[in-house]
Amino acid sequence: MAFTLPALKYAKNAFSGFLSENTFNFHHGKHLQTYIDTTNKLVAGSDYEGKSLVDIVMTSSGPLFNNAAQAFNHEFYFNCISPETNVQVPEKLLKLIELNFESFEAFKEKFCASAVGNFGSGWTWLMQTGTNKLKIMNTSNAGNPMVDGFTPLLTVDVWEHAYYLDYQNRRADYVKDFFNHIDWNFVASNLKD
Q1: What is the span of the domain harbouring residue 159?
Q2: Are 140 and 127 in contact (CB under 8 A)?
């Protein structure tokens, strides 16, 4: 069965002051669609046909990995954001963040600094590395922490196509605004016991 473009859980024009409908039209409607279409072409007739996107990301390499991982990363990113600002962090996740980063504010500062400083195109992740263990990690291009055995909880897309139409070269402003639109319920739902 072919992969299809996942529907957004919000309207493309719901993020006033953060991301424009135009950005969603390009980022979700064109960039993500291209990764999905290319993944489908590369999977057709191969040993990967019928496998899940996660299985493909975990076992492929080269162009198939690049496109499948970008499809996964983008879908994950779009699930990480919410039109609502300052969504309450669920208690279990908040305690883990405080355990690993001393305070929520210290985590926010470290995550944002990591995303702003992530050289070139890529992703900044909050991931679970073990029981009660969280870590911030930058990846380049289509990199994904799952291939290193970690569980992704949160990601911000710092490829320029994610923010350039609205922020131009002001990545720091984009990351700051991103942080105010995190869907912490989705982030917490990715935790493993």
Answers
A1: 18-193
A2: no
What's the structural domain count of the chain?
Answer: 1
Written as one string, the DSSP assignment of 5-73 is PPPPSS-TT--TTT--HHHHHHIIIIIIHHHHHHHHHHHTTSTTTT--HHHHHHH--HHHHHHHHHHHH
Asked if 152 and 125 touch (Cβ cutoff 8 Å), the reply is yes
pTM score: 0.96
CA 87 to chain centre: 17
Task: Note whether 57 and 74 are within 8 A (CB).
Answer: no
For 114-128, the pLDDT digits (tens) are 999 999 999 999 999
Q: Are 123 and 158 in contact (CB under 8 A)?
A: yes
Residue 191 counted as domain residue: yes
- Residues belonging to the chain: 193
- Other Cβ atoms within 10 Å of 50 Cβ, number: 9
Residue 13 lies in a domain: no
Each residue's pLDDT tens digit, 48-90:
999 999 999 999 999 999 999 999 999 999 999 999 997 899 9
Dihedral, 66, 69, 70, 71 alpha carbons, nearest 10: 130
